[in-house]
Amino acid sequence: MLFGAALQAAAAYAGPLAPPARLGLCAACHGEDGKARIPGAPNLAGQSQDYLLQALHAYRTGRRDAPVMRAAAGPLSEREMQDLARWYAAQSPCMPPQAGGR
Ligand code: HEC
Q: What is the pTM of this model?
């Protein structure tokens, strides 16, 4: 059982994250790095993990009404939503727009 415990410890190691299995479902709109790829999609990089997870729950239940996100969150398991929230929270946030430009 020692070996199993070691494996679990390795899985819990919070070092460089492996991209979540479902990242491909989100990347077209939010980017793999959490920087939006389409107009109207929010940047997810660097937002709080709890906030991201709550948003996914809210879309899935319809409490937050956005058909696109309801469709995206619908097939996810709780574990997959946690992995995605952790991933996007760990990406470096977008730079704020340059002040006073143009
Ligand atoms: C087709 C484009 C599209 C795809 C695919 C998509 N999203 Fe979104 N996402 C959006 C849009 C548009 C919004 C803003 C919706 C709103 O008005 O609440 C959004 C909002 C969000 C939010 C809330 C962000 C905030 O700042 O409140 C989270 C979290 C999120 N998406 C995560 C994901 C995850 C995780 C996936 C993959 C499973 C995914 N999205 C797939 C378009 C997309």
A: 0.85
Which residues have CB under 6 Å of ligand 1?
Answer: 22, 25-26, 28-30, 40-42, 44, 47, 52, 55-56, 64, 66, 68-69, 72, 76, 84
- For residue 91, the model assigns a pLDDT of 96
At 96, list the tokens: 């704020």
Record: fold of 20-90: Cytochrome Bc1 Complex; Chain D, domain 2 (1.10.760)
Q: How far is CA 39 from CA 7, 18, 19, 28, in A?
A: 42, 27, 24, 11
Say if residue 82 is exposed, middle or buried (CB neighbours under 10 Å; 0-12, 13-18, 19+). middle
- The full set of domain ranges for the chain reads 20-90
